[in-house]
Each structure stands twice: as structure tokens, then as C-alpha cells.
Design a protein that fits this description.
- The protein is mostly helical.
- The protein contains six helices and no strands.
- It has one domain: Four Helix Bundle (Hemerythrin (Met), subunit A).
- 79% of the residues lie in helices and 0% in strands.
- Helix 1 runs antiparallel to helix 4.
- The chain is elongated, with a radius of gyration of 16 Å.
- Bound molecules: fe (ii) ion (FE2).
- Fe (ii) ion binds next to helix 1 and helix 2.
């Protein structure tokens, strides 16, 4: 699961997305810590747009391209349930952030960024390793083609 397993090249597009997503989370953390202060409402609006746009399309790619072949191999297990629960939770936190009043924006930004970071850690340390061990070469090829067909994704859109 965690450890030295090298990321399969067919999954690299998703890991590349993760780097971009973490950069947005870092912006939030630096702003909330006062290191790079931002107008909270403006920052929240940016992150809501990001959450509904690039981040959601990243989640959809995982749900539609990565999860089905893994489910077929491994069945519904803790890893799949964790992914689904975390995606749902992060979407809910995005919606909460969108509706947050002035006094709640900082807490909502923080909750959103922390949940996103924890989710990426889970995928990089547990899920992706399990997926690349469970899938056949042909299945990994199909995942790679599916991810390539969805376009450049958030990584290149930023
Ligand atoms: Fe992800």
C-alpha cells in the first residue's frame, strides 16, 4: 500500500492533478495563517469555482474511469468506501463554503482544504497502489487511455 511502490505511468495523470490540487490547498493554508493574506470572500469564491470545476472533474474521472475496473477486481472494500465517502464529504464542504457567511468563511476554507489534503494522502498512499496491484496490464492501459481522453485535466488548465 504505502511505501516504495512506484506510481504506474497510466495513473500519473491523476497524481499530476493532485499536485495542482495541493497547490490550491497551500494557498488556502498560507492565507489563513496570515503568511500570504487574501480577502477571505474572494479566496472562498475562487476555491468554490475550483471545487465545482477542476476538482469535481478530477473526482468524476476517478469515479468513472478508475473505480469501476478496481471494483470488478477487488469488490466493494474499505478503500472504495473511503473514496466515495471522502468525495461526498468534500463536495458537501464545497457547497458549505459556497454558502458560508462572513463569520464562517475561514472555518469552511480550512475544513475544505484539510479534507482535500487528507483525501489526496489516502489516494496516493493507499488507493492508487492497491489499484495498480489489482488491475491487469490491459485494464491499466484502458484506464490510461480513459484519462488521456478526458483531456488535459486541471493540471494543464492552470
Ligand atoms: Fe484524487
Amino acid at each position: 500500500m504505502s511505501g516504495p511502490l512506484k506510481r504506474d505511468p497510466r495513473l500519473v495523470a491523476l497524481s499530476h492533478d493532485h499536485h495542482q490540487v495541493l497547490a490550491r490547498c497551500r494557498e488556502v493554508t498560507l492565507a489563513l495563517d496570515g503568511v500570504q493574506p487574501r480577502d477571505p470572500a474572494e479566496l472562498a469564491a475562487e476555491m468554490v469555482a475550483f471545487s465545482n470545476g477542476e476538482l469535481d472533474s478530477h473526482f468524476e474521472a476517478e469515479e468513472q474511469i478508475l473505480v469501476p475496473p478496481y471494483l470488478a477486481r477487488a469488490g466493494r472494500n474499505r478503500l472504495v468506501e473511503t473514496l466515495e465517502a471522502q468525495h461526498a464529504h468534500i463536495r458537501e464542504l464545497g457547497a458549505r463554503l459556497a454558502g458560508a457567511g462572513e463569520d464562517a468563511v475561514a472555518d469552511c476554507l480550512s475544513a475544505w482544504a484539510e479534507a482535500v489534503k487528507a483525501h489526496i494522502r489516502f489516494e496516493e498512499r493507499e488507493l492508487f497502489g492497491a489499484v495498480q496491484e489489482a488491475l491487469s496490464e490491459e485494464e491499466l492501459e484502458a484506464v490510461g487511455r480513459g484519462l488521456a481522453a478526458r483531456g488535459s485535466g486541471p493540471a494543464c488548465a492552470l
